[in-house]
Amino acid sequence: MATSSSSNPAGGPSPQYLKVKTHLREGIASGRWRPGERLPSEAELTETFGVSRMTVNRALRELHQEGMVERVQGVGSFVAELHRIASTLTVRDVHEEIAARGHRHEAKVHVLESLRASAEQAAQFGLRAGATLFHSIIVHRENGVAIQCEDRLVNAACAPAYMAQDFEQVTPTHYLLEVAPLSEARYTIEAEMPNALEARLLGMPRGEPCLVVKRATSSHGRIVTAVRLVHPGSRWILEGSFQA
């Protein structure tokens, strides 16, 4: 019989439905059940956990409401496809966003280099031409699906140890927010076609549009980084809320 060590806030045993929910959530996050795959049936879960059908139904219903599970009447429950993944208009670590959905984040570094700023790049950062910049290209995956190609330039004077980081373990956003606390961010958001490299790294056809976020962030009056974040249009949405 499956078990869980989760407990409720009061320190007592977890509600039975939460044990089922946690078991399924952890299985999805670990890749045991991949997007589109069928989950164990309600009858199977009832027998495995020794609980009522109603208890299992509640666990599946909550996972469905959270966007992790699709339920098909008379057929069963399936791991939701990663075709509409939300990101809010804040500077957030993509690893944290993915983890908050109970999913698995992976990063692959394709470029990590030092270069001399061109005249255009120098103007963008408010530096002299030839100043040192760091450049990285990293692809982020959610449960094995490529959802973001991150092409980033960094002011070496603001983050001198950038090249020494393992960005397959710690994201550039996480590192930069620690060494150069954010004071300002500027965005542009556009629909564009990916270039040849982006299309190849994201595993998508050149003709599929992308949602491209271009962002520059500053700390204490200095531009720290400029990044181009490319998301396949079929796998990502941007959403946010504003309050007066």
TrEMBL record:
Keywords for the protein's UniProt record, in alphabetical order: DNA-binding, Transcription, Transcription regulation
Domain of life of the organism encoding this protein: Bacteria
Transmembrane segments: none
Domain HTH gntR-type: 14-82
Gene Ontology MF: a single term: DNA-binding transcription factor activity
InterPro entries in the cross-refs: Bact_HTH_transcr_reg, Chorismate_lyase_/UTRA_dom_sf, His_ut_repres, Tscrpt_reg_HTH_GntR, UTRA, WH-like_DNA-bd_sf, WH_DNA-bd_sf
Entry-linked SUPFAM superfamilies: Chorismate lyase-like, Winged helix' DNA-binding domain
Annotated GO biological process: L-histidine metabolic process; negative regulation of DNA-templated transcription
A Pfam family assignment: GntR
PANTHER family referenced in this protein's UniProt entry, alphabetically: MANNOSYL-D-GLYCERATE TRANSPORT/METABOLISM SYSTEM REPRESSOR MNGR-RELATED (PTHR44846), TRANSCRIPTIONAL REGULATOR PHNF-RELATED (PTHR44846:SF16)
UniProt-listed NCBIfam families: his_ut_repres
Protein name listed in UniProt: Histidine utilization repressor
